[in-house]
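4.2 Preliminary Data

To establish feasibility before requesting continued support, the project team ran the inverse folding procedure on a target of 127 residues. The structure was first converted into the token representation described in Section 3, and no sequence information of any kind was made available to the design step. The complete token record follows.
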């Protein structure tokens, strides 16, 4: 059986860590760049897009001003996607670290999707 592989992407974000965290953890923030509509009920986030697609994800972990980890309910048991805010203590540079899973031949395509999502995020934040 072919398993999905974990991969990590890093994006420099010109924003405060706190503002960036709100965009990756709050339904209002997520609905401005990640999906068209986001709702939460009992730690289950429903992400909806204008094309009619909808996906549910369980919130697995959350660390204030640091990270959120979700698991798509219809995905393989060991997989998740995580968005982590990293701040360099010396330079104060802020980065968003994305950890996700994909089949080896799909990592390139999923990276392109993340790149587009992050471009949306940057335009919303004004970074």
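Position-by-position output of the design step:
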């Amino acid at each position: 059986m072919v398993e999905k592989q974990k991969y990590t992407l890093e994006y420099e974000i010109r924003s405060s860590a706190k503002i960036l965290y709100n965009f990756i953890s709050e339904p209002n923030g997520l609905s401005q760049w990640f999906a068209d509509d986001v709702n939460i009920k009992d730690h289950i986030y429903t992400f909806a897009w204008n094309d009619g697609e909808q996906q549910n994800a369980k919130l697995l972990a959350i660390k204030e001003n640091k990270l959120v980890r979700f698991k798509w309910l219809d995905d393989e048991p060991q997989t998740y996607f995580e968005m982590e805010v990293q701040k360099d203590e010396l330079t104060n540079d802020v980065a968003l670290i994305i950890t996700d899973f994909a089949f080896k031949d799909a990592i390139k395509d999923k990276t392109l999707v993340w790149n587009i999502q992050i471009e949306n995020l940057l335009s919303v934040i004004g970074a």
